[in-house]
Structure prediction request, 220 residues.
Amino acid sequence: MFERLLPEGTVVAEGPIGEGGGHDALLPEERPLLAGAVAARRREFVAGRRYARQALAALGLTGVAIPSGPGREPRWPPGVTGSITHCRGYCAAAVGWRRTVGSLGIDLELEESLGPDVERLVCSPAERRHAARLRPSGVAWTTVVFSAKESLYKAWFPLTGRWLDFHQAEVEIDPGRGAFVVSLTAPARAALGAGGRVHGRFLLEGGYVATVAVISGSGA
Ligand SMILES: CC(C)(COP(=O)(O)OP(=O)(O)OC[C@H]1O[C@@H](n2cnc3c(N)ncnc32)[C@H](O)[C@@H]1OP(=O)(O)O)[C@@H](O)C(=O)NCCC(=O)NCCS
Prediction:
């Protein structure tokens, strides 16, 4: 799914989450992160690390531990950007060199309506009007907006170490190109420093919404 969305220079490994949730699939630095976790969380975490290691191997990095930071962000090896997502039995991990890709975020959601309350939390009135005008009708466009913002956050956090509110970003979707652009509020743009353009792509497939966001100009 993500292969078709990701920029050149990125490697993705993706597939079913599967049943294996054992500690033996993790490296010692990663095991404490699952203390007290329920079985479903163990399985998704292990799948994320398994696919992430497959993807890193394609960059020539083998046997690398991927612990999580205080914001739950994956800690990639130096010079690497990457992102992990899991949703209803499916998992993907994408990585690339920061100097070529920038900062990467990926997200997967079920293609279902958010419902009016969540929609108001996630989308501005302008985004809701924009989503209502998009064609084909019947697509859960506000879920695409939501997923785009989740992808954005995963690319944003490793660069800034800061929380980003849903209303600090405005998503505009181009259905024909399977693309979106994110406009950040002025303080959020300032937090990114120079550059900080955010472009993304999306795909609706098999009942899922998949999105990728790339913050370019952040490669140093
Ligand atoms: C962190 C968040 C984006 C995760 O998304 P999700 O749809 O719940 O779950 P996913 O399965 O797609 O992604 C989970 C993975 O995201 C990654 N992740 C979690 N926190 C992260 C962070 N701060 N930065 C980067 N990646 C992060 C992790 O790899 C995690 O999997 P792991 O714990 O197994 O390693 C979401 O829970 C969240 O907090 N959202 C609110 C912030 C936000 O989106 N703001 C909108 C900005 S416009």
